[in-house]
Specification:
By secondary structure, this protein is of the alpha/beta class. It has 4 domains: 49 residues, no CATH class; 161 residues, Substrate Binding Domain Of Dnak, Chain:A, Domain 2, CATH 1.20.1270.30; 149 residues, 3-Layer(aba) Sandwich (Rossmann fold); 200 residues, Rossmann fold. It is 49% helix and 10% strand. It contains 27 helices and 16 strands. A 6-stranded parallel β-sheet has the order 6-5-4-7-8-9. Strands 13-12-11-14-15-16 form a 6-stranded parallel β-sheet, sandwiched between helices. α10 crosses α22. The longest helix has 35 residues. The termini are far apart.
Length: 670
């Protein structure tokens, strides 16, 4: 029986993606979308019922009451699989943080070519949080001490990692009581692997407590440090104008796409692409210059700091090459498909790997080293420029969208109060009054088993109608950008009346782009500042807020979800659950799924649930927000109370005669 293949429209809602999928089909080229249709997921592994942690298996538990060869139950196997996935995700993000710390150390000691300390104010602020002396000291001295402190957090064996001191005091006390404050980033990842080895930890709840500790080592450890250092080295993001989608590629320029996650490489390639030497080299090759764009979280890094356009999110990496217009795709770590090399063989594109941790057979490897950063970046660009002459037929979709990215928590603080009154008070007041019903963080990956970008943007649009302020990171943010939701004018006709007033008054989009996937720590910082500002409880679990990952696919997403739960956030993942087990099959056993929801909620105030239906995601989000509003004794959400003030109301009044306008304004005020 032939497999059912989805139509182009069923595969993606994005017109540029649809155009390239049609081109791929006409050329007989497969993509992640066609491979997802061809390959059915293993139902046993997908539901967490398979264990392959030793040589006696793999053991497949498909019947009620069955156990593995060692006697492991379905609950133990599910818990072990989840812990290992969270450990891998935590390791990926935290290793990024480690590399950033080493780069900061090199810059502080004048050993990193082309880099500088761009945000000395943030350097001083962060250092002061850890009691590093800052008065009468050079920025390089402070940076060296901060780098040493951060590097020490990875190998520390006892005590607790120091960044957790930035969480709300009540939350820190809870973690202390539960014994889940990470001792050292590496220690928790190693212990997670040890505990899940054959014959070790066999109590599912005990295993899942360590999952929390391992995830916290990421969210309040490695990822938080990575964000701090990126801001210090490359500048703390503030709003800039950018563009997104495949239409940012240019026919008359050398197109270089950077893809991955580490900004040390991409920021230096940005600088090198603007060097007169490189521009002249490109012009000598017959191009107008070098056109740089990004894919995935590298796109977010250079987009929010430099305004460099985003060619797309995770599922568009192959499609960028299918345009035929990309001279080189330069990759570092994470979310890079091995299929790129084979795909590039159909075109002239060179796949260039740069990290000592990542090689792909058949790709050109040009290892990046921060100590010779500018030299290597120029060599990479020259490799791409030399390839310009080999370009064949090109087909670039004429689809792109403007956006305003760069809403760091520092800028949100500033935009709400200005230089001298920076404060989260206006945001808290807007939630307390009901103009903003609550906050939702919509983050995460794309997954080719769902309709590309649909879940991200559908959930976003529906929550905006309900006066929910949205913050986004990662591939989810790029999805919204391509739909025009990251522009200020989107607040005029796509959101509820209360949120519309806020967007008009402050001059912000209803969806705030907060960065790459490691920058989810910015969201935790915002929630912490909201708590500290007062009026919304004394811990994160009391804030009317929800986290969603509608199209998740990576182990990093599971780590993010777990550390957000531990911080007190209700987290909803789209798609099927990796710990569903035999639920809805031959038994009602769902102990692990129940524990990460009700069990974690009882302990931490946050819970993790997997929901397939987007309307159910929205219903649960709003129900949770309203429940938290009620617990805080805030006014019940009522959209009819708002919408007759702000810019829209003033525009209506401008058409009235003076006497009527004054009566309307002052009469309403009285």
């Amino acid at each position: 029986m032939a497999k059912k293949m989805r139509t182009t429209e069923q595969r993606s809602i994005d017109p540029a993606t649809q155009e390239m999928l049609i081109r791929a089909d006409s050329l007989g080229i497969g993509t992640a979308f066609t491979r997802a249709d061809d390959m059915a997921p293993c139902p046993i592994g997908a539901d967490g019922m398979c264990c392959k942690h030793c040589g006696m298996g793999p053991c497949r538990l498909t019947k009620d009451g069955s156990v593995g060869i060692c006697g492991a139950t379905i609950d133990t196997i599910q818990a072990r699989n989840l812990v290992r996935a969270i450990a891998a995700g935590s390791a990926a993000h935290s290793d990024h943080g480690r590399d950033m710390a080493f780069t900061l150390k090199a810059v502080a000691n004048g050993e990193a070519e082309g880099y500088s300390l761009r945000d000395v104010a943030k350097l001083r602020t962060v250092a002061a949080k850890y009691d590093i002396p800052i008065e009468d000291r050079a920025p390089e001295e402070i940076a060296n001490d901060l780098a040493d402190l951060y590097i020490a957090q990875f190998g520390q064996q006892k005590g607790k990692i120091i960044p957790v001191s930035r969480a709300p005091q009540k939350r820190q006390k809870l973690w202390e009581e539960q014994g889940v404050i990470p001792r050292g980033v590496d220690r928790e990842v190693v212990e997670a692997l040890h505990r899940t080895h054959i014959g070790d930890d066999q109590d599912p709840e005990h295993l899942l407590q360590h999952a929390i500790r391992t995830a916290l080592a990421d969210g309040w450890g490695g990822s938080l440090m990575a964000t701090d250092i990126s801001d210090i080295l490359f500048g703390t993001p503030a709003p800039v104008l950018g563009q997104a989608n495949l239409g940012v590629l240019q026919a008359d320029m050398v197109n270089v796409v950077v893809h991955g996650h580490e900004p040390t490489l991409s920021e230096m390639i940005v600088a090198a692409s603007q060097d007169p030497e490189i521009i002249a080299y490109a012009q000598a090759a017959g191009a107008k210059g070098v056109n740089l764009s990004g894919i995935c979280c590298t796109a977010n890094e250079i987009l929010m700091r430099q305004g460099i356009p985003a060619a797309g999110n995770f599922l568009q990496q192959e499609l960028a090459i299918i345009t035929g217009a990309v001279e080189a795709m330069v990759v570092d770590v994470q979310c890079i498909m091995q299929a790129l090399v084979g795909l590039a063989g159909n075109f002239h594109t060179k796949i260039i790997t740069t990290s000592p941790k990542v090689k792909i057979k058949g790709a050109l490897h040009m290892q990046f080293d921060e100590h010779q950063a500018m030299t290597i970046a120029k060599n990479i660009l020259k490799e791409a420029i030399d390839n310009f002459k080999n370009r064949g037929e090109i087909s670039i979709p004429d689809v792109r969208e403007d956006l305003i990215p760069g809403f760091s928590h520092e800028y949100i603080n500033y935009m709400l109060g200005g230089s001298y009154r920076a404060s989260f008070r206006p945001l808290n007041d807007a939630i307390m009054s009901g103009r903003i019903r609550g906050v939702a963080a919509i983050v995460g990956c794309n997954n080719p088993r769902s309709q590309h970008d649909y879940l991200h943007t559908y959930v976003t649009r529906e929550l905006l109608k309900q006066d929910v302020l949205i913050v986004e990171t990662g591939c989810g943010a790029i999805a919204s950008a391509k739909q025009g939701l990251l522009l200020g004018e989107a607040g005029l006709d796509k959101v509820g009346p209360g949120l519309q007033e806020i967007c008009e008054t402050i001059g912000i989009p209803p969806v705030l782009h907060m960065g790459s996937c490691v920058d989810n720590t910015r969201i935790l910082t915002v929630l912490t500042q909201m708590v500290e500002e007062g009026g919304l409880g004394d811990d994160i679990d009391q804030v009317p807020a929800v986290g969603l990952a509608p199209e998740w696919m990576s182990e990093k997403a599971l780590s993010i979800g777990a550390y957000c739960v531990a911080s007190g956030v209700y987290v909803i993942f789209g798609g099927t659950s990796p710990v569903r087990g035999m639920a809805n099959k031959v038994t009602d056993s769902d102990a692990v799924a129940h524990y990460i929801s009700a069990g974690w909620e009882e302990i931490y105030g946050g819970k993790l649930e997997f929901v397939v239906d987007p309307d159910e995601m929205i219903r649960r989000t709003l129900a949770h927000i309203d429940k938290k509003r009620a617990a805080l004794k805030l006014p019940e959400y009522d959209p009819t109370r708002f919408g007759a003030s702000g810019d829209s109301r003033m525009m209506e009044l401008e058409d009235l005669p003076l006497a009527e306008r004054q009566a309307a304004m002052y009469g309403a005020a009285s």
